[in-house]
């Protein structure tokens, strides 16, 4: 079984990468894939061969929960 780590080329991670429907119009987005042994990898859709960030299920759960609650809204809000 392959070991997945932060910084490895995203293109060598198997699976179907998914992205938000909202981002499909401009083509710039974050894509995610579930890893075979658990966890999630993220990549930049404009650089699919670039580095991946790998997270545990618990880390992704905490992030998604915070995003749903608006905890990161200030990152994309105009100054």
Structural class: alpha+beta
Topology, number of strands = 4
Oligomer: single chain
Strand content: 15-25%
What gap, in angstroms, lies between the N and C termini?
Answer: 46 Å
Number of domains: 1
Shape call: globular
- Helix and strand sequence: EEEEH
Radius of gyration from CA coordinates: 13 Å
Helix content: 10-25%
Task: Please tell me the overall pLDDT.
Answer: 91
Describe the sheet with the most strands: 4 strands, antiparallel
Task: State the strand order across the main sheet.
Answer: 1-2-3-4
- Total of DSSP H or I helical runs spanning 4+ residues: 1
- Residue stretches low in confidence (pLDDT < 50, at least 5 long) are none
SSE arrangement:
Elements lengths: L17 E2 L10 E5 L5 E5 L8 E3 L1 H12 L11
Antiparallel strand pairs: 1-2, 2-3, 3-4
Describe this structure in words.
With 79 residues, the protein is α+β, with helices and mostly antiparallel strands. It has one domain (10-75). The protein contains 1 helix and 4 strands; from the N terminus they run E-E-E-E-H. It has one helix spanning 57-68, and strands spanning 18-19, 30-34, 40-44, 53-55. A 4-stranded antiparallel beta sheet has the order 1-2-3-4. A hairpin with an 8-residue loop joins strand 3 and strand 4 (53-55). The chain is globular, with a radius of gyration of 13 Å. The mean pLDDT is 91.
